[in-house]
Design a protein that fits this description.
Elements: H1 12-23, E1 39-45, E2 52-58, E3 61-62, E4 65-69, H2 80-87, E5 90-95, E6 98-106, H3 110-123, H4 126-133, E7 140-145
Antiparallel strand pairs: 1-2, 1-5, 3-4, 4-7, 5-6, 6-7
The protein binds coenzyme F420.
Coenzyme F420 is lined by residues 9-11, 14, 17, 32, 39, 46-49, 51, 53, 55-58, 69-72, 79-81, 83-84.
């Protein structure tokens, strides 16, 4: 990881979720709005600035690993964090009170992706609709403990 400074998300509700999650040491802010579904926090480096970025994502846990789904609500473009993770796969994942250094790789093998997509849609069914909404194949990463 670089020594960059933390630069909060430009999206207010996302920034607020990160703030609550971190300031409570993972005892608050770990659910997606009113859905009650659990969220993890991914910390990584910006590929151009080296700044520290923090991105809440749905919690999709497979064994010791986490599936990271670059869905961004089914918008046409990939989220910026997708490009950051491709450039530098070193991340820290907070799952409530547990913080673990991990490495994230984009899953390109079709069979592996299908298995992880099934786990992702089981944890968070709206991913199915997000994929129907956009033409890009939604990228999937697997983050594994270093
Ligand atoms: N997003 C998902 O894609 N999947 C999820 O499962 C998901 C769940 C979720 C749960 C709770 C919650 O609060 C948010 C959730 N989100 C989920 C939204 C997610 O947290 C992100 O906000 C969203 O995916 C958009 O990611 P983004 O990286 O495009 O963020 C935007 C809004 C943003 O803040 N961008 C910064 C900016 O300033 O515009 C990014 C800046 C950046 O990284 N710059 C790079 C750098 O070097 O610093 C350079 C980038 C470049 O390519 O030039």
């Amino acid at each position: 990881m670089s020594n960059g400074e933390y630069v909060p998300s430009t999206t207010e509700w996302v920034r607020n979720q990160v703030e609550l999650y971190e300031s409570s040491n993972g005892t608050e802010g770990y659910e997606l709005r009113d859905s009650g579904l659990p969220v993890i926090l991914v910390t990584n480096n910006g590929r151009n600035t080296g700044a520290i970025r923090k991105t809440p994502l749905m919690r999709v846990k497979v064994g010791e690993a986490y599936v990271l789904v670059a869905s961004m609500g089914g918008q046409p473009k990939n989220p910026v964090w997708y490009y950051n993770l491709v450039a530098d796969p070193n991340v820290t994942i907070r799952d409530r009170t547990e913080v673990t250094p991990m490495r994230a790789r984009e899953v390109t093998d079709a069979a592996e992706r299908a298995t992880l997509w099934a786990a992702a849609t089981e944890a968070f069914p709206p991913y199915i609709e997000y994929q129907q909404r956009c033409e890009r194949p939604i990228p999937v990463f697997l983050a594994e403990p270093v």
